[in-house]
Known about the structure:
Layout: H1 2-17, E1 24-28, E2 33-42, E3 45-50, E4 54-59, E5 63-76, E6 92-98, E7 101-105, E8 112-115, E9 119-124, H2 125-133, E10 142-154, E11 158-172, E12 182-196, E13 203-217, E14 222-233, E15 238-254, E16 258-273, E17 280-294, E18 300-308, E19 318-328, E20 333-344, E21 355-367
Antiparallel strand pairs: 1-2, 1-5, 2-3, 2-9, 3-4, 5-6, 5-9, 6-7, 7-8, 10-11, 10-21, 11-12, 12-13, 13-14, 14-15, 15-16, 16-17, 17-18, 18-19, 19-20, 20-21
Amino acid sequence: MLRCTLLFSLSLVAWAQAPKAEPDVVIFTDGERLSGHLIGANSANFTFQSDMLGSITADWSKVKELHSSKTFAVIPKGVEFKRNADVSAVPEGTVAVADQKITVTPAAGAPKTVAVADATNVVEDGAFKNALMHNPGFFHDWAGGVGAGASLANSTQTAESFNAAINLVRVSPLESWLRRRNRTAFTFSTGFGEIKSPGTATVKTSIYHAGLERDEYFSSAFYGFGQTLYDHNFSQGLKLQQTYGGGIGYSAIHKAAASLDLKVGGAYIRQDFSISANNRSLSAITFEEDYRRNLMRNMLFTQQLLVNPSLNDTKAFTASFNSQLAAPISKKLNVSLGFIDGYLNNPSGIGAKKNSTQLNLSLNYLIR
């Protein structure tokens, strides 16, 4: 007992006397000095967790000196990674910044210097190695949201409407400094409504859309895609429209704050209407544009346009447009305002309109 107590006491003393890791220090050109921890950086700016101010992001041009005792990987411009890639061209070690240059001092070997403007990313060393080895299963790393909204009215007329949506995207790898390998997207939206009035027939609205897309990248910007879409619109007499297609996509903008994808391809479309004589099998061209933009206060704007002109029946023209503005109200919830317009040039039924529009206000649960 005495021996165990003595060993335990010595361990506590050693733990109490163990030196704490020195905080990172940044000195700005105006002489201001902050201590904390360097989180990461790119060629334009860096992110620093200050003990006094919390997380800040600042331009490198405002920095006189920066010193960190943590180990980082400094990825130079022109170095592009795939999983299990050769990392010999990436300096790894503690970092110090002065005169717009990053000096990387490894555990063994001579220091290396990289100009701030030539450093695509500065990544914590453990995260750097984990990202290169990370190979998640299909059911991991999904992000997006699940939302729903409703409206009820009860007077001489009774009206009720419901809408729901699921939007999920899985990108591999997640890190922006690794070349994207693939992307999978699943979307589902539905709107249902009824208006009942004494002595008249019930007016019904029933619309749903479901889509699944898989992208496989063969460069940092170009990829091949395949997609399956299902659409139903009671008001247009469309029981089910099935679209199976694929083609080539191009990421014209691929940044953290914004992205723009352009796609072109071909598709087979099967349209089944409530009046079976109007059923069609179509060969079509696919044109698609997808845009995303981060706005102030962590708001997000998304927009998509899909056009399918038919080759074998020019009157059977279909298109869809949707946009959404989402604003966060907590870490897991946001509220969104969305507009959806589905265009069907050959609707079935007397008085059926070619355009079908929806304006939805929803509460969404975020999946990250």
